[in-house]
Structures are given as structure tokens and as C-alpha cells.
Design a protein that fits this description.
The protein has 377 residues and is α+β, with helices and mostly antiparallel strands. Helices cover 31% and strands 25% of the residues. The structure holds zinc ion (ZN).
């Protein structure tokens, strides 16, 4: 049993279903304090978070992640109980094994090894850990980042431990994410009898050409790191259920996944210009759930590529695909951010598992990255 695996087992035994932490953070802080970190507990409402730092100089390299896990569903559906971790045929089984208690254990052991070899390293190492990543994400990373910003404490480089790998550990690093902008559009008309359309105004008829134009619009070309921005309608509703009533209102829910070629403001303006051009009477509620971000080159990306090559022999692929992560809250501060973690094949599933050996490989990659970024030569 390796140190990373032992710690991963200890973390998985704590039933930290979001937003619970169940002692995971206390365990991590104890280990960090023992190697010279200063811990700061940052609880917001029912959410435990902590910030921990070793050193006072820049550059500041931060490990970011979450101790909460998604619910298990009925435990009887699991081959092995989700909070009684076990290594079976080289695979560590348990809720959070891949997302992301395995990465947390690898962060910690890598840090301990690095600090032992380089007690007088350059810059600083920090941890930003939340128990509100899998839930609403309102009292977690976003609040810790606000606290840091308020006192002008800046993260220069951030490694998020989300499971980024596809089929072999280290094969993929996420160096950015698309933005996500949602909207609820309500088009107003006038209800009436279908036999007397001159006395009514049908919002389905007035909206249809505008929606067709939105669906056909070419928003951008994307760029080297992002596919073209996409617009998708997810819900559309109008009508009373009766066959002889012209509806008074049409509701459309849609979402943009957008590249760094555009901003949310530009998308809003262009959408509303199309709606206005068609003379619609409407109101629209926008919800920006994440800005796009990209860390396309620089010391952090270089260190990840080099460390992965040295430890695994693999040429890693930089990718911006997939859903959002807490990186969206850290990147806007100007930090370089990337996600590097184990294989994501079973995350959020029954029988979540991860290769035990991969967690040790990941530990070596993180330690090598710290060396490349912070070892004093
Ligand atoms: Zn996660």
C-alpha cells in the first residue's frame, strides 16, 4: 500500500456527500500543517472550505479541488460499498476515488515529498479546497477567491485535480473551458380564438422566423483551442392545450457554449438585435454560469507537458472540451489554470473506481511539476 493510496482510502471512508465534508479537510490540514503550511478555515453558510499556504513569496502555485462527492444512489447497486473503499484487481473502488479524492491524496503526498527534498523552495505552494463543487457552488471556491481578491492575494498558477484523463493517465490536460450562457425568452402575443386571428396575435408565428435565424446564425469560427460557439434551444412551450386557442405567450429556453472569440455581452447584443429585427415583444432573462477561459502557453502548461512526458512517456493533449469546473472562478483573477487528474470514465457512476497505480503516477507528475516550477537551483 503506497502513501497516496492509504490517504485516498482514508478520505473515501469519510461520507462527504455534497455539501458535507465529514472531516476530510481537517485531515488534509493536519498533514499540511506538519510540513509547514498555514491553514485558514473559511466556512460560508453550511460549506467548509480552507486555504492553506507555505511561503510568502511569489510565484504562488495552488492545488485546487473539492472534498465533496455526488450521492451514491441506492448502495445495494454497488458491488463494493461506496464508503468502504477497497482495491480490487488493482482498481481502487469507492465514491470519490476518481472525482476527486484520489487527486487530493496525490496532491498531498506530492507536496510532502517535494517539501522534504526542497524545504527552501522558491515562491509559495497553496491549497484551495471546498466541499461545494458538486452542489450549487455558491459558497465554495467562488467565495474563497473573493476573500483572496479582497486582500490582493494572487494565485499565479493553479492545478485543479479534476479527472481530465481519457484512457491513460496524463493523456489529456484541460487548459480551458468554454463559457456557458443561458436564457429564458418570453415572447408576448395576444390570446384569442383561432377562428378570429385578426383579434389576436400569435407569438408562435411571430417568434418562429426569429428562432430560425438564431438557430442558423454563425456566431464565430472558434479558434485553435475552442470549437465554434454553439446555440441550442432546449425547451419551447406555448399553448393552453386546447386546439382552438391562439396562445398569449411563448417561452423558449436556450443555451450558448461559447469560445474566447466572443463575450457574453456580445452574444446578448447579437441575440437581442435579431429578436428586435423581427419586431418581437419579449422579455429575456440571461444567466451567465461560466466565462470561458484559456491558459494557452506559459510555465504552467509547459511544466505539465514536460512532467507527463518524463514520468509516463506520453505526449499530452491540451483540451477545452467537457463541462465546467471550479477553474472558471479562479481563471478570471488572471491565474494560469489547468486541470490534471485521473481517468474520468466512471465519475458520478455506480462502482466509481480508478487505477491505484495511476494515483501513484499522478503523485509523481504533481511532484515533478512542483520541482519544475518551484525548486530553487
Ligand atoms: Zn470533481
Amino acid at each position: 500500500m503506497t502513501p497516496t493510496l492509504e490517504l485516498a482510502l482514508e478520505l473515501i471512508r469519510r461520507r462527504s456527500v455534497t455539501p458535507e465534508d465529514d472531516g476530510c479537510q481537517a485531515l488534509m490540514m493536519e498533514r499540511l500543517a506538519a510540513v509547514g503550511f498555514n491553514n485558514e478555515e473559511l466556512r460560508f453558510e453550511e460549506v467548509d472550505n480552507f486555504w492553506s499556504r507555505r511561503g510568502s513569496e511569489g510565484p504562488l502555485v495552488c492545488f485546487a479541488g473539492h472534498t465533496d462527492v455526488v450521492p451514491t444512489g441506492p448502495e445495494k447497486n454497488w458491488n463494493n460499498p461506496p464508503f468502504e473503499p477497497a482495491v480490487i484487481d488493482g482498481m481502487l473502488h469507492g465514491r470519490g476515488a476518481a472525482d476527486m479524492k484520489g487527486s487530493l491524496a496525490a496532491f498531498l503526498v506530492a507536496t510532502e515529498n517535494f517539501v522534504k527534498k526542497h524545504p527552501n523552495h522558491k515562491g509559495s505552494i497553496a491549497y484551495l479546497i471546498t466541499s461545494d463543487e458538486e452542489g450549487p457552488a455558491k459558497n465554495g471556491t467562488v467565495k474563497v477567491v473573493e476573500t483572496l481578491e479582497a486582500r490582493n492575494e494572487k494565485i499565479d498558477m493553479c492545478i485543479v485535480g479534476e479527472p481530465s484523463s481519457t484512457s491513460l493517465v496524463g493523456d489529456t490536460v484541460k487548459n480551458g473551458r468554454r463559457g456557458s450562457l443561458g436564457a429564458i425568452l418570453r415572447v408576448h402575443g395576444k390570446q384569442g380564438h383561432v377562428a378570429y386571428p385578426h383579434l389576436a396575435e400569435n407569438p408562435v408565428h411571430t417568434a418562429a422566423p426569429a428562432l430560425a435565424e438564431l438557430a442558423a446564425e454563425h456566431w464565430d469560427e472558434g479558434n485553435d483551442f475552442f470549437p465554434a460557439t454553439s446555440f441550442q434551444i432546449s425547451n419551447i412551450n406555448a399553448g393552453t392545450g386546447a386546439t382552438n386557442v391562439i396562445p398569449g405567450e411563448l417561452e423558449v429556453v436556450f443555451n450558448f457554449r461559447f469560445s474566447t472569440e466572443l463575450t457574453a455581452e456580445i452574444l446578448q447584443q447579437r441575440t437581442e438585435a435579431i429578436l428586435d429585427k423581427h419586431g418581437l415583444k419579449y422579455d429575456i432573462e440571461w444567466n451567465l454560469s461560466g466565462q470561458p477561459f484559456l491558459t494557452d502557453c506559459g510555465p504552467l502548461v509547459d511544466a505539465s507537458v514536460q512532467a507527463i512526458k518524463e514520468i509516463t512517456g506520453r505526449d499530452t493533449e491540451l483540451s477545452t472540451a467537457g463541462g465546467t469546473s471550479d477553474g472558471r472562478f479562479i481563471a478570471p483573477t488572471g491565474a494560469q489554470v489547468l486541470e490534471l487528474g485521473p481517468i474520468n470514465a466512471t465519475i458520478h457512476q455506480v462502482n466509481e473506481h480508478v487505477s491505484a497505480e495511476d494515483l501513484d503516477t499522478l503523485t509523481e507528475i504533481y511532484e515533478r511539476m512542483l520541482e519544475l516550477l518551484l525548486a530553487a537551483d
